[in-house]
């Protein structure tokens, strides 16, 4: 009976087949610039290490180096096998870092596309304008808009999105969306001009 208990549960002294602890997950927040260009991050962890006597342990710090390749998707998991706490009759857990996008002041990303929202006055929405878009690699795009901007209008600039993870030389698209700004009031002359323009 005792041998059966030891086989299934490791016995009262913790002996038996070693088991591995569940993975330890940590989120790693990266800017879109870091993901666009790729980067190297160093993460410090503290882990319990068994001493040479096999019975006592101590806490030690360790630096893990993560290489982030251009274009990695949010939710990408980077696993460091068996870097968790050591213990008697246990296999250290894997440590898993999960990539998260840090909020950006200009962009959001959808897959490999970058979304940029630009305010535009109603007059420019009707007559056309040029939108300046700062890129993640330090350039400034001047995008001409010649079509009428309606609430669902979207300007697509091919090849100015995020790198494709499996082929960083290729990129997704930049998609410019618009927040049309209506005037709070119009003068009589402005109303008359609009009436003549639309109704003859």
From TrEMBL:
This entry carries the following GO cellular component terms, namely: cytosol
GO BP annotations listed: protein folding
Q: Which residues form a coiled coil?
A: none
Q: Does the keyword Chaperone apply?
A: yes
Q: Name one GO molecular function term.
A: protein-folding chaperone binding
Q: Does the keyword Cell division apply?
A: no
Tell me which Pfam families the record gives: DnaJ_C (PF01556)
InterPro entries from the UniProt entry: DnaJ_C, DnaJ_subfamily_B, HSP40/DnaJ_pept-bd
Identify the keywords attached in UniProt to this record, alphabetized: Chaperone
Q: Under what name is this protein listed?
A: Uncharacterized protein
């Amino acid at each position: 009976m005792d041998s059966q208990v030891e086989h299934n549960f490791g016995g009262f002294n913790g002996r038996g087949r070693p088991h591995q602890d569940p993975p330890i997950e940590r989120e790693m927040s990266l800017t879109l610039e870091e993901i666009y260009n790729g980067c190297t991050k160093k993460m410090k962890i503290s882990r319990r290490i068994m001493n040479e006597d096999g019975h006592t342990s101590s806490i030690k710090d360790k630096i893990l180096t993560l290489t982030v390749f251009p274009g990695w998707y949010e939710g990408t998991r980077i696993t460091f096998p068996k870097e968790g706490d050591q213990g008697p009759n246990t296999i250290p857990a894997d440590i898993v870092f999960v990539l998260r996008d840090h909020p950006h002041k200009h962009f959001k990303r959808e897959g490999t596309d970058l979304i940029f929202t630009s305010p535009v006055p109603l007059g420019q929405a009707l007559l056309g304008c040029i939108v300046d878009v700062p890129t993640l690699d330090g350039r400034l795009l001047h995008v001409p808009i010649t079509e009428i901007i309606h609430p669902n209008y979207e300007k697509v600039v091919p090849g100015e999105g995020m790198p494709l993870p499996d082929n960083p030389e290729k990129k997704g698209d930049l998609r410019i969306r618009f927040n049309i700004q209506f005037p709070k009031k119009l003068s009589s002359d402005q109303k008359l001009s609009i009436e003549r323009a639309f109704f003859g």
